[in-house]
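Dear colleagues,

For the upcoming journal club I promised to circulate an example of a predicted protein-ligand complex. I picked one with 1,3-dihydroxyacetonephosphate because it came up in last month's discussion. The inputs are reproduced below in full, followed by the predicted structure.
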Amino acid sequence: MRPQDFSEAGLSSLPKEKLIALVKEMKAKRNAVILAHNYQEGPIQEAADFVGDSLKLAQHALKVEQPLILFCGVHFMAETAAMLCPEKKVLVPDLAAGCSLADMVIPSQVRAWKKEHPGGVVVCYINTSAAVKAECDYCCTSANGLEVIEAIPREKEIFFVPDYYLGSYLKAKSGRPIEVWKGYCPAHAVINPGEIEHLQEAYPEAEFLMHPECGCLTKQMDLADRILSTDGMIRYVKDSPSSAFIVATENGILYRMRKENPGKTFLPASEHAACHHMQRNTLEKVFRSLVRLEYEVTVEPEIARRAVICINRMMEVTGKPEIIPLSEDWILEAANDFR
Ligand code: 13P
């Protein structure tokens, strides 16, 4: 290929299989590894070395031997890999692929809470910037949130940032008076209870799986058969004898579910549940990123030093990620809380 063909239009005129092969070739030349989140488009997953949820991706980054990681996800995930693997270069295909939820809390807001609650503990969802993590005590993901909360001494006050729905879930499951920040994921917020009810009427045999970031979690959780992280969902649909599933999370996950379970039916809880940040990453940009070695993600060393403490506490507590079983009747309480 001539360099002038590296334009997005030039690359996208190639058949996807050809571009996947070129990405793999370039990856080998660069001695790079591609890590991709479960929400990424199919062709990126096909070119990746490892596909997983936020926790598995962070854990996998620690095992990478190659000097170069191309991270296909959103910015905080690449930042986490860069902090955990300071000796490696971490690239993203598009620097603007951020996370709206992560942007909903900033370091000064965490500092303000800590000032008012000396001795309190701040738990941050991994969907936070490195600068926010640096102010927090523990990190967690949707796969290990409960384990992390349970590792904190009972007498400690806990503040959870930034996802209201995951925080409410953890509050209910742990029975602890956690103060929860009111951030949310826009992709999950569009999933609405009415659409789910219609799907359940149309497909009564389908199991209903929900991510704890779902905007209707507080109203609809009693109807969910399972509340799971994205990897939890991937494992669950494989093992379950059911043949149909209503899936309430970002719709990129359907690619992997359908590929790995060809005999089963997967119905998106909403056709509109799309993370536009994740979708900024395309296979064309992945290829260009490897050719041009752009865009590097770095974290200021002092921020990284403090943020890694918070991430490592999670890594120490977390065992094998488990399926989170469905909880009881805290939904109304949480719904009132959010008003
Ligand atoms: P998982 O950790 O379940 O993959 O979720 C990450 C995320 O950002 C969901 O929106």
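Two points we might discuss: The two ends are 56 Å apart (CA to CA). Residues 38, 53-55, 127, 141-143, 185, 213, 229-230, 250 surround 1,3-dihydroxyacetonephosphate (CB under 6 Å).

See you all on Thursday,
B. R.
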